[in-house]
Write a structure and sequence with these properties.
Blueprint lengths: L2 E2 L3 H4 L28 E6 L4 E7 L7 E5 L4 H15 L3 E5 L2 H14 L5 E5 L3 H6 L10 H7 L2 H6 L1 E2 L2 E2 L2 E6 L1 E6 L11 H11 L7 E4 L5 H4 L1 H4 L7 H4 L1 E5 L4 H12 L13 H9 L3 E7 L13 E4 L12 E10 L6 H10 L3 H11 L12 H4 L2 H10 L2 E3 L10 H13 L3 H19 L2
Parallel strand pairs: 4-5, 11-13, 15-16
Antiparallel strand pairs: 1-3, 2-3, 6-15, 7-8, 9-15, 10-13, 10-14
Keywords: Signal, Transport
Protein name: Cyclodextrin-binding protein
GO molecular function: maltose binding
């Protein structure tokens, strides 16, 4: 069975997406370590008069194992049956969470027992590359770079090499209760503050706005909106830390002043508290992740979602984005078949089906124009936020950032001097990085 490279993007158009439920197809364990070299031949397609098109050939007797978490398994079970029917390559889907996948690759990979394809968040990429677990996305590199969101492509690229086949993106934006809030109230952060001053009734636990205050993941826009950065050279140079720059101090000063509309300790603004207040109609604007779209779709009031607005300096902040992708195992005996499958499950039509089944917001460009996407305004709002997002840094040194910045956020929220506090945080980050490299 062979697949023309130029036509792979059209393959899913031939799929029958109303697939009947099926169980995993059989497939044995893989063994050996694939070299990742795609076997290609030249041929002529008479229907297009394109001569010498490259073709990717599944290996003789190929069979695949795919690992994914429980939320991705139902879709994979269905699409695997189609792939087998189309290419004659059996595919077995096994439930494995991302942490378990990474652990098992260390032992099962060399033993020839690991999956041929993994599904991992992009912040696992540095470890996966360092461990030699994954192959580059080489054969479909041009298509992937052209068809997927730039943020997603950057997230699955390491040292200039593209590895992943992006599936879905996650970020956060502003959920709001349409019975309580007008979109004009969300036009700027100053507008949000003004609305909250009018709406707040803290004695009855009513708040205009709330976010997780001691979580740097959600507080990052108060840095990016003031042109501060984490690491230099697009978050690849840990020797250059910008979290105590003049912009960072300005952003944290604005953040600190918001305590006027949210008079509580940072540790008390938990996810559970926020969610309960929002669902009860006591929180009007909730900064939270797109993974809550399903939870907020069946409330007794209509919920909207819009991107984060600009700050008083006129800058629109960027949020962190997380990207989950398929990766081809470096230990696969059948790397060509695995690459074909990774491409097959990330076509436009396949990702729409995955969205319908699991709610994964596709990382492809142009998905906001799909009818099924437009039917949920919250999803449309999330996709707009993706345009103002950056991949969360995936270098090892990022792990040294979270705790010092969480402490800094709590202290700044309490009223400590932003500059002094950020200086201490950066020093702690530097010491952690030094320890990491000893």
């Amino acid at each position: 069975m062979k697949v023309k490279k130029w036509s792979v993007t059209l393959l899913a158009a031939l799929l029958t997406l109303s697939i009947s439920a099926c169980s995993s197809t059989g497939g044995g364990n893989t063994s050996g370590k694939g070299d990742g070299n795609s076997q290609v031949v030249d041929s002529t397609d008479s229907s297009t008069n394109e001569a010498n098109s490259e073709e990717l050939l599944p290996e003789e007797g190929a069979k695949l194992i795919v690992w994914d978490g429980n939320d991705g398994v139902p879709f994979l079970n269905e699409i695997a049956k189609q792939f087998t029917e189309e290419y004659g390559v059996p595919v077995e889907v096994q439930e494995q969470g991302a942490p378990e996948q990474m652990q098992k690759m260390k032992t099962d990979g060399p033993a020839g027992l690991a999956a041929d394809l993994l599904v991992l968040p992009h912040d696992n990429l540095s470890e996966a590359v360092a461990g030699g677990f994954v192959l580059p996305n080489d054969f479909f590199e041009e298509e992937t770079r052209a068809e997927f969101q730039e943020t997603a492509v950057n997230a699955v690229t390491k040292d200039g090499i593209l590895y992943g086949y992006p599936r879905n993106m996650e970020t956060y934006a502003l959920f709001y209760n349409k019975d309580l809030v007008q979109e004009s109230d969300l036009a700027s952060w100053d507008n949000i503050i003004a609305f909250s001053k009018h709406f707040n009734d803290t004695g009855n636990k009513k708040y205009g706005f709330m976010m997780q205050l001691n979580n740097f993941y959600f507080a990052y826009p108060f840095f990016s909106g003031y042109n501060a950065y984490i690491f230099g050279e697009n978050n690849t140079n840990p020797a250059d830390i910008g979290l105590n720059s003049a912009g960072a101090v300005e952003g944290m000063t604005y953040f600190q002043n918001m305590r006027e509309i949210l008079p509580m300790e940072a540790a008390d603004a938990t996810t559970d508290v926020k969610t309960a207040l929002f669902q009860d109609g006591k929180l009007a604007i909730n900064l939270d992740g797109v993974w809550n779209i399903g939870n907020f779709s069946s409330l007794p009031f209509e919920v909207g979602m819009v991107p984060l607005p600009e700050f008083p300096n006129g800058e629109t902040p960027t949020t962190f984005a997380g990207v989950k992708s398929y990766y081809v195992s470096a230990y696969s005996k059948y790397p060509n078949a695995a690459k074909l499958f990774a491409r097959y499950v990330t076509t436009h039509e396949a990702l729409i089906k995955n969205y319908e089944m699991a709610g994964f917001i596709p990382a492809r460009k142009g998905m906001e124009n799909e009818k099924v996407i437009q039917e949920n305004p919250m999803v449309s709002g999330a996709i707009k936020q993706f345009e103002h997002s950056v991949a969360m840094p995936s270098i090892f040194e990022m792990q040294q950032v979270w705790s010092p910045m969480a402490n800094a956020l709590e202290l700044i929220w309490k009223g400590d001097d932003p500059k002094t506090t950020l200086d201490h945080a950066v020093k702690s980050i530097q010491e952690g990085i030094e320890t990491l490299h000893r």
